[in-house]
Amino acid sequence: MNEIIEEYKVWLEIQGKSKNTIKTYSGIVKKFLEFLINNGIIITDTKSINDSLGKNLILKFLAEIKVKKKLDSNSLRLYVRAISSFLKFLDNESLAKQIKAPKVDKRLPKFITYDELNKLLENAENYRDKLIIKFLFYTGVRVSELIKIKKNDIIFEEGFVKVYGKGGKERIVPIPKELLNELKDYINKINTENIFSLSSRQVERIIKNTAKKAGINKKVTPHVLRHSLATTLLSKGVDIRYIQEILGHSSLNITQIYTHVVPNQLKEIYNKVFESQLA
């Protein structure tokens, strides 16, 4: 079983998947193979798996894992994507097409206000944590991208940072002048190549604990800070295509969800359109 999973990991890498995706998908596939073994399937190679698989058996796995892990629709979609990917690895495209993902739970993205940002900054444990919060909020980078940023990725002369996103895609993100100056001072004092030598989990804990200390009664995560940049820019009239570029979204459809969280801007546009007719 382990050999098959290792082969699958290599296949995912060839497909250009990120390290996080490879780790997540291979973890799900391992659970799936364990499920097959527990259901009396003898696994010797990829052919033995293919010969034993059917739509009903896969649906049984998904149903059991949904109950066991208490998965919502969005989380279950991740399992479906991983299993579909594994089926493609097995050259079983026809079966992969039969496994349909549940509809997306279209919840609006959460975000924080400027007042809540200031509360976070005031309650940060130290200067490094304060910089992490500012960096996530003002650049909108993912936490997985944040921890990979090195000193030479900051282009001080032009005020940008090179960000390496999903699938190794590179993009350039602007940094506000004040934050740029603070980063310069901080970088001169550290000996590590990475600006923030932490794991994703450590960054998540820093944000969570700081929010709790600040008395913010909503869930605050690195991703919430990313959402906050998007909603702030959109509310200030920034073109959604620029926001797409900053966030590194592969499709404009992903970015468009933020248009649902700025009703004041929509009201302002509506008034401008109809004010002359109604005057």
UniProtKB/TrEMBL annotation:
<dbReference type="GO" id="GO:0015074">
    <property type="term" value="P:DNA integration"/>
</dbReference>
<feature type="domain" description="Tyr recombinase">
    <location>
        <begin position="107"/>
        <end position="271"/>
    </location>
</feature>
<keyword id="KW-0238">DNA-binding</keyword>
<dbReference type="InterPro" id="IPR050090">
    <property type="entry name" value="Tyrosine_recombinase_XerCD"/>
</dbReference>
<keyword id="KW-0229">DNA integration</keyword>
<dbReference type="GO" id="GO:0003677">
    <property type="term" value="F:DNA binding"/>
</dbReference>
<dbReference type="InterPro" id="IPR044068">
    <property type="entry name" value="CB"/>
</dbReference>
<feature type="domain" description="Core-binding (CB)">
    <location>
        <begin position="1"/>
        <end position="91"/>
    </location>
</feature>
<dbReference type="Pfam" id="PF00589">
    <property type="entry name" value="Phage_integrase"/>
</dbReference>
<protein>
    <submittedName>
        <fullName>Integrase</fullName>
    </submittedName>
</protein>
<dbReference type="GO" id="GO:0006310">
    <property type="term" value="P:DNA recombination"/>
</dbReference>
<dbReference type="InterPro" id="IPR013762">
    <property type="entry name" value="Integrase-like_cat_sf"/>
</dbReference>
<dbReference type="Pfam" id="PF13495">
    <property type="entry name" value="Phage_int_SAM_4"/>
</dbReference>
<dbReference type="InterPro" id="IPR002104">
    <property type="entry name" value="Integrase_catalytic"/>
</dbReference>
<dbReference type="InterPro" id="IPR011010">
    <property type="entry name" value="DNA_brk_join_enz"/>
</dbReference>
<dbReference type="InterPro" id="IPR010998">
    <property type="entry name" value="Integrase_recombinase_N"/>
</dbReference>
<dbReference type="InterPro" id="IPR004107">
    <property type="entry name" value="Integrase_SAM-like_N"/>
</dbReference>
<keyword id="KW-0233">DNA recombination</keyword>
